[in-house]
TrEMBL record:
One of its GO terms (molecular function) is ATP binding. Residues 338-462 form the Mur ligase C-terminal domain. It comes from Allorhizobium taibaishanense. One of its GO terms (biological process) is peptidoglycan biosynthetic process. Keywords: ATP-binding, Cell cycle, Cell division, Cell shape, Cell wall biogenesis/degradation, Cytoplasm, Ligase, Magnesium, Nucleotide-binding, Peptidoglycan synthesis. Catalyzes the addition of meso-diaminopimelic acid to the nucleotide precursor UDP-N-acetylmuramoyl-L-alanyl-D-glutamate (UMAG) in the biosynthesis of bacterial cell-wall peptidoglycan. The modification N6-carboxylysine is found at K224. This is UDP-N-acetylmuramoyl-L-alanyl-D-glutamate--2,6-diaminopimelate ligase.
């Protein structure tokens, strides 16, 4: 693709700016063979985008990129190089727009969901509702990519723009017309979604997370709100969960941006939740929408799943699924892998779940959610990740101490940190905590304790399939360890 075709619209000004920078007339005639922000991935003919990151400054790799065959550079500041240098005040946004144009084609109807907890669940539920309505649909997020033809494991919640647009263009070519993606605060802050054309967007909630990256919770919220104040086209539906502490702020931002705000939940007006009955493996919810009353038999445990289901239904209805169809689809929902997923049931009836709560709010919600159907004790096994927000450790300890009867503190991806130190910081919040570093042994101990009426929650890893120690990922599965211990203690 010619640089001229690549750099049009928003980017036209940039190519103008490039003339003369490298003395390069005819720069716009350059044939570009690819776009990347990683000098290690440069192939001859590519455009290299220099980004200032958290660890390195891409500008320092620009000369290396040219040596590898890059024929043009995009940078925030002028660079003295032998190839044209396009200047952009927002190189991350430019990268996203360039990637979207180079890897053209996206599923026609795309939605994105943000919030501290529930994104993966909402993306999965939205895909499932669309599929129920007969639409070719996909989900993109923490657990990877699911579409009619794929079930690929992923690494980032919001992929980088080049990976994202390569994927979107492939999905579109495969016939996927509807896709739901997760918008992480990192992704939004770094402009990873800036090239995506959104039909609607959703918000679940805000709690403490990523305080290692965002200086304050307001900054964290502001990053999330980019979805509404910058990315979602004016007038598009904004589906907002109404019962969170931060709902009012999200509604304010979305209204000010001129969106069609649709609130869901107990305080919601688009989908109003009037009544919920909790059962062991399901719940029955009464939902009102435009004068109609639906009684929904949701086959998932946990009050928070109703919130996720309503946001997903709101997004599906806002993208053309009839409300009655969406409500019927909710009755067939499968939980996202590792999100309050029932993995074992002892003869005594005691239940063992795997959950992905790895932040305070999520842990609070999940431990609260299982209480109504637990006549015995709530037992929790969890830890905190290394090289991540240290402040949340004692907070999560305190939550477990308050909401569980038995607390077992173990390891969860210590990464470069000393595992015992992390456990110590969690233990500081939980006087009743029992410390068992080896995660398999911790799970075994939790399962061994299970008696009639008890519920075990193994939290933090969810769908993950490894334990990261140092720079190594050792194979590990909470699911497999629970099943093994179940056979041993509750055959
Ligand atoms: C902190 C963070 O978000 N980092 C992301 C960010 O990297 P960065 O720009 O800061 O990278 P950097 O290492 O400082 O390098 C700066 C630039 O120099 C380039 N470089 C670097 C070295 C080199 O030899 N050549 C070269 O060109 C890099 O490619 C980069 O463009 O941009 C990269 C490209 O998009 C991401 O891969 C990278 O994610 C790292 C791997 C990561 O762990 N991110 C996590 C924290 C993350 O994004 N998580 C969120 C949220 C998850 C959740 O909600 O729990 C997610 O969406 O997954
Ligand atoms: N609506 C919700 N409110 C509060 N907690 C929730 C909600 N939905 C899920 N959770 C809790 O958060 C965990 C993660 O859920 P999910 O993966 O859907 O969220 P996420 O926003 O994608 O998280 P991440 O950013 O870690 O990928 C669940 O296992 C559960 O403990
Ligand atoms: N995307 C999150 C997942 C954390 C999951 C938990 N198991 C941990 O390692 O802290 C992160 O990398 O921060
Ligand atoms: Mg997620």
């Amino acid at each position: 693709m010619k640089l001229r075709e690549l750099a049009t619209g928003d980017l036209e000004a940039l190519i103008g700016a490039s003339h003369g920078v490298a003395g390069g007339i005819g720069a716009d005639d350059l044939e570009i063979t690819g776009v990347t922000a990683d000098s290690r991935k440069v192939k001859p003919g590519m455009l290299f985008v220099a980004l200032a990151g958290t660890k390195a400054d891409g500008a320092g790799f620009a000369a290396d990129a040219v040596a590898k065959g890059a024929v043009a550079i995009l940078s925030a500041t002028p660079l003295d190089l032998s190839v044209p240098v396009l200047i952009s005040p927002q190189p991350r946004r430019s990268l996203a727009l360039l990637a979207a144009r180079f890897h053209a084609g996206q599923p026609e109807t795309m939605v994105a969901v943000t919030g501290t907890a529930g994104k993966t669940s909402v993306a999965s539920f939205t895909r499932q509702i669309w599929a129920f309505a007969g639409l070719a649909s996909a989900q993109i997020g923490t657990t990877g990519v699911v579409s009619p033809s794929r079930n690929d494991y992923g690494s980032l919640t919001t992929p980088d723009p080049v990976a994202l647009h390569t994927l979107l263009s492939e999905l579109a070519a495969e016939g996927v017309t509807h896709a739901a993606m997760e918008a992480s605060s990192h992704g939004l802050d770094q402009g990873r979604l800036d090239g995506v054309h959104l039909a609607a967007a959703g918000f679940t909630n805000l709690g403490r997370d990523h305080m290692d990256y965002h200086p304050t919770v307001e900054d964290y919220m502001a990053a999330k709100m980019r979805l509404f104040d910058t990315l979602l086209p004016k007038g598009a539906p904004a589906v907002i969960f109404a019962d969170d502490e931060w709902s009012a702020e999200a509604i304010r931002v979305a209204s000010e941006a001129g969106h069609d705000v649709r609130t869901v939940g107990r305080a919601g007006t688009f989908l109003s939740l009037k009544r919920v009955e909790h059962f062991r493996h399901k719940q029955i919810a009464e939902v009102h929408h435009e004068g109609a009353i639906y009684e929904v038999d949701l086959p998932l445990a946990g009050d928070f799943q109703i919130a996720n289901a309503l946001v997903a239904a709101g997004l599906a209805i806002s993208t053309g699924v009839p409300a009655a169809v969406a409500m019927r689809a909710l009755e067939k929902l499968e939980g996202a892998a590792g999100r309050l997923e029932l993995v074992g049931q002892a003869k005594s009836g005691a239940l063992a779940y795997v959950d992905y709560a790895h932040k305070p709010d999520a842990l609070e919600k999940v431990l609260t959610a299982v209480r109504p159907f637990t006549s015995g004790r709530v037992i929790v096994v969890f830890g905190c990740g290394g090289d991540r927000d240290k402040g949340k450790r004692p907070i999560m300890g305190e939550i477990a101490n308050r909401l569980a009867d038995i607390v077992i503190v173990t390891d969860d991806n210590p990464r470069s940190e000393v595992a015992a130190t992390i456990r110590g910081e969690v233990m500081a919040g939980t006087p009743k905590g029992i410390e068992i570093g080896d995660r398999a042994q911790a799970i075994r101990a939790g399962v061994a304790m299970l008696a009639t009426g008890d519920t075990l929650i193994v939290a933090g890893k969810g769908h993950e399939e490894g334990q990261i120690v140092g720079s190594q990922t050792l194979p590990f599965s909470d699911h497999a360890e629970i099943r093994k211990a179940m056979e041993e203690f509750h055959p």
